[in-house]
Amino acid sequence: MTDIFSIYSKISKSEFEEHIKDLDPLEAIKYLEQKYLDIQFLYDSNLNVRLEDIYAIEGIVIDKKDGDYLRVLGDFVAIKYPELHLGDFYVGKYYELGKDYEKADFYYKAAYGKMNLSDPNTNEFYENIKRVNDLMKKQKEEKETPIEKNEDKDENKQNDN
After folding, report:
1. What is the pLDDT of residues 24-59, one digit of tens each?
2. CA-to-CA distance for 96 and 123, rounded, in angstroms?
3. Maximum Cα–Cα distance for the chain, whole Å?
4. CA pair distance 138, 75, nearest whole angstrom
5. Closest-CA residue to 139 (of 104, 110, 111)
6. Contact indicator for 86, 76 with CB cutoff of 8 Å
7. Is residue 84 a contact partner of residue 107, using CB atoms and an 8 Å limit?
């Protein structure tokens, strides 16, 4: 019986070690999607992707290829769990790693807005928003050239006179 229902269970350590750990991020996401399509076909059960299984491949997607596939994982999670904050978080992380802080801020705020305030992770999610806002300010300051800074100082002096 265990063998018959092995595919139905969540991703085990042995399944992860044998089939997933060496996959590229996109292949890991496809593996997860295929697992649930197989469950639906074999058992005629429309089981939604378990959060534990998403967390099982999360490390691969974040760590490999500099998080380039976080957007794909975020979209995948948002389709499966539209009311959950996790999809928006992954997309926000994708944009943060790509240094597009305005979009990261948008998705982090969307994720925070979906969270239950009693969730113990709400403070950590708010820290994401604060961090990205600080990075946006720093990025804007770096874009400002020294000539523009001097012109601003000259204008302030003229206004004072």
Report:
1. 999 999 999 999 999 999 888 889 999 999 999 999
2. 18
3. 88
4. 29
5. 104
6. no
7. no
The identity of residue 8, as a single letter, is Y
CA–CA distance, 157 with 150 (Å, rounded to integer): 11
Burial of residue 97, with CB atoms counted within 10 A of its CB: 0-12 exposed, 13-18 middle, 19 or more buried: middle
Separation in Å, CA 48 to CA 32, 35, 133: 11, 11, 35
The pLDDT tens digits of the residues spanning 73-90 come to 999 999 999 999 999 999
Neighbour tally for 18: CB within 10 Å: 10
pLDDT above 60 for 110? yes
Closest of 136, 96, 146, 92 to residue 114, by C-alpha? 92
Q: Which candidate, 136, 133, 140, places its Cα nearest to that of 112? A: 133
What is the pLDDT at residue 2?
A: 67
CA–CA gap between residue 22 and residue 64 (Å, rounded): 10
Q: How many CB atoms lie within 10 A of CB 48?
A: 8
Tokens, residue 106: 């948008």
